[in-house]
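Troubleshooting log. The previous structure file for this entry was overwritten by mistake, so regenerating from the original sequence record. Sequence copied from the archived sheet and checked twice against the printout by T.R.
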Amino acid sequence: MKSLSIFGFTGSIGSQALQILRKHKEQFIAAVEENRDIDRSELIKLADGRVFTGLQSKDLGLVDMLGTFDDAINIAGALGNIKGKPKTIEINKNTKPNKHKTIKI
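Regenerated output below.
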């Protein structure tokens, strides 16, 4: 019997990795199925691990539109009825989180 190898992992680690991949696939299918008008059989064909470009995703019906980060901020602001330009903050990824730190907006 041939040993299962996932990303070079075999045995119980390989089995755990495979379980995680299967769970992510199930979550992807459930989320898209709930929010998109895509036939389940077609969706299962798409959920094979490929990475799609933005344009491919739009053509496949996985996203509504393409845009920049700023476009996304502006759309979120409009959906949230924010007047003017939405204020954003950037958290420094190199700084350790401090639960007592306050962020001023």
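The helical segments are 11-35, 40-46, 54-59, 69-79. Archived copy saved in two places this time.
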